[in-house]
Design goal:
Layout lengths: L2 E6 L4 H12 L6 E8 L2 E8 L2 H10 L7 E7 L14 E2 L5 E9 L2 H10 L11 H14 L2 H9 L4 E9 L6 E6 L4 E4 L4 E4 L11 E4 L4 E6 L2 E6 L8 E4 L15 H7 L1 H9 L18 H6 L2 E6 L1 H18 L3 E5 H4 L10 E7 L5 H12 L3 E6 L5 H4 L3 E4 L12 H21 L4 H22 L3 H9 L5 E6 L3 H16 L2 E6 L16 E5 L7 H16 L3 E7 L11 E5 L8 H18 L18
The structure holds 2-deoxy-2-amino glucitol-6-phosphate (AGP).
The site of 2-deoxy-2-amino glucitol-6-phosphate (AGP) has 15 residues, from helix 9.
Length: 615
């Protein structure tokens, strides 16, 4: 959950690192710090609070100019957000600096050993022990990469480490285990970062690091080994995001930009997936057709918004393939002793590809012999690397903590997986698959149309900014949409919000209805399962009769809802299973606007991080 940047080259390391950290601020922002090698020594600055506090510190007390440096933005796990706990952490001699993302589970015993050997540790963090251990090992071997390998072999837990030593002025060393780290390779310079957004302004050539690897950066090249020192095979790849893609592009918030990017994100995720004869070609899905034909159960594991995408995927997978599909919260999955075997296909959905709950769930699944397919938005991240196959969404960088375009592209990817299973298993004929793909190809335009009609939704949101709670109802695929709308409002407006299956109202929740309580109702198409449509219209009448303020999302042409809707939000008519792709958008806009009306920080909501890399 922290942001890490390292640089070695001929430019000002401070400028490169600070700009990179600025782009990673969303990964964690309760403190930040930098360290630069210059004049034979090491200089560092770090401050608690927002990134701007570090910028002010550096203005008042500039660091010397150097061409090697590291930096960090923190989301606290061990130790509160204080100056002392901010990274980088140094050894007592001030010759080693290290930044860290993750958790070192055995830091307490390592700290005790260090203190017995006379080291003085001043922070509450787990990270600080690494600085002292590196200093000890370096004093014996005089090689920072080797010192890092020796130290990593003693650490337990999940970590990305990046360090510098004043005695090696043109070297940056990194290491990773169960935590993100990517390498950028430029002309006479090299970069390390938690996320490519930190260096794509300088290079699009990247190297994917594997598990338990140490990377040594020098101006003239990059060396990667295992923790055991043996040379490691690495994969180079080209980053297809440009620098502008990670900027706000004129919007007040990254979230607004990312909501607006959804039509393109949906279209991009479909690109290249249909071959010349109209068949689906999911070339990253490195599971053979024969293996997929043996699948007798699908289990989807994910968290938060990604979990809601999985709930929607279940309807499509079961309807199109007739394979039983379970959807599990990743944090619960492995603790319930699930029944998995070679015939189980586990689908791990994750925007960041680093969510520890989801990563640990897929590891458990693989240990049980299941095959794992990842649906992920971040190239080179841990979850796809540890899966048997991956289908990348092409949403581009999603910077705002509240997931929007990643969610819509996860749905598209889930539909493609369901269709692909239907194709290889023969439960969907080619023309049926083509028909769905044609409908999917229209969705980008339909989302665009929805976005053009959002002003009444924004006005409604502002008018409800004083409310304490909003309920969300839906049926069928509209039920997970209701859950997602409630989550958006919770995480952005810090407001109580709850999603229900509309059929559950009479089993308890209807007791919550009181005068002027806002209730959002996602209405299924009357053209699909009309019985569901009629039932939810009855639900709307029931809550309205008890005083609710009904906010109804219904497709164009659905007149049955009009008499019972205090506010009517129209969406384009779509096939039943694809409706979430258009019904979710007004709920994203609603939550973002209401949060803005409340004066909340939309891109970085309190207590949340973009990627939850601890369990
Ligand atoms: C959703 O708006 C949140 N940001 C959060 O629920 C997120 O979806 C969840 O933490 C999963 O993240 P992932 O997709 O990166 O695995």
């Amino acid at each position: 959950m922290c942001g890490i940047v390292g640089y070695v080259g001929s430019q000002s390391a401070l400028e490169i690192v600070m700009a990179g950290l600025k782009r990673l601020e969303y990964r964690g922002y309760d403190s930040a710090g930098v360290a630069v090698l210059a004049d034979g020594g090491l200089a560092a600055a770090k401050k608690a609070g927002k990134f701007v506090n570090l910028e002010k510190e550096l203005t008042e007390r500039p660091l010397p100019t150097g061409t090697t440096g590291i930096g960090h933005t923190r989301w606290a796990t061990h130790g509160g957000p204080t100056d002392a706990n901010a990274h980088p952490h140094l050894d007592n001699a001030g010759r080693v600096a290290v930044v860290h993302n993750g958790i070192i589970e055995n830091f307490a015993c390592l700290r005790a050993e260090l203190e017995e050997r006379g080291h003085e540790l001043g922070s509450e963090t787990d990270t600080e022990v690494v600085a002292h251990l590196l200093a000890e090992e370096f004093s014996a071997c005089a090689d920072l990469a080797e010192a890092m390998r020796l130290v990593c072999r003693r650490l337990e837990g999940a970590f990305t480490l990046v360090a510098v030593h004043a005695d090696e002025p043109d070297v940056v060393v990194g290491a990773r285990r169960n935590s993100p780290l990517v390498v950028g390779v430029g002309e006479g310079e090299a970069f390390l970062a938690s996320d490519v957004a930190a260096f794509i302004a300088h290079t699009r050539s990247a190297i994917e690091l594997g598990q338990d690897q140490v990377v040594e950066l020098r101006r003239d090249g990059v060396t990667v080994t295992g923790f055991d020192g043996r040379p490691a095979d690495v994969r180079s790849y080209r980053i297809d995001w440009d620098a502008a893609a990670a900027e706000k592009g004129g919007y007040d918030y990254f979230m607004l930009k990312e909501i607006a990017e959804q039509p393109k994100a949906v279209a991009d995720t479909l690109l290249g997936r249909i071959d010349a004869v109209g068949s689906l070609t999911l070339d990253e899905v490195r599971i053979s057709a024969s293996e997929l034909r043996e699948v007798d159960k699908v289990v989807i594991v994910a968290c938060g918004t990604a979990f809601h995408a999985g709930l929607i995927a279940k309807y499509a997978i079961e309807h199109w393939t007739r394979i039983p599909c379970e959807v599990e919260l990743a944090s619960e999955f492995r603790y319930r002793d699930p029944i998995l075997d070679q015939q189980t296909l586990v689908v791990a959905i994750s925007q960041s590809g680093e969510t520890m709950d989801t990563l640990m769930a897929l590891r458990h699944a693989r240990e049980q012999g299941a095959r794992v397919l990842a649906i992920c938005n971040t190239n080179g991240s841990t979850i796809p690397r540890e899966s048997d196959a991956v289908l990348y969404t092409h949403a581009g960088p999603e910077v705002a903590v509240a997931s929007t375009k990643a969610f819509l592209t996860q749905l598209v990817a889930c539909y493609l997986v369901a269709l692909y299973l239907g194709q290889v298993r023969g439960t969907k004929w080619g023309d049926e698959i083509h028909a769905v793909v044609r409908d999917l190809a229209k969705i980008g335009g339909e989302v665009e149309r929805v976005l053009e009609t959002m002003e009444p939704v924004r006005e409604l949101a502002r008018s409800l900014a004083h409310k304490n709670t909003v309920l969300f109802l839906g049926r069928h695929v509209g039920y997970p949409v209701a859950l997602e709308g409630a989550l958006k409002l919770k995480e952005l407006a810090y407001m109580h919000a709850e999603g229900f299956a509309a059929g559950e109202l009479k089993h308890g929740p209807i007791a919550l209805i009181e005068d002027d309580l806002p209730v959002v109702v996602v209405v299924p198409s009357p053209r699909g399962r009309s019985v569901l449509h009629d039932k939810i219209v009855s639900n709307i009448q029931e809550i309205r009769a008890r005083g609710a303020r009904t906010i109804v999302i219904a497709e164009e042409g659905d007149e049955a809802v009009v008499p019972y809707a205090d506010h009517l939000i129209r969406i384009p008519a779509t096939p039943t299973l694809l409706q979430p792709l258009v019904a979710t958008v007004p709920l994203q806009v609603f939550a973002c606007e209401l949060a803005t009306a409340r004066g909340n920080e939309v891109d970085q909501p309190r207590n949340l991080a973009k990627s939850v890399t601890v369990e």
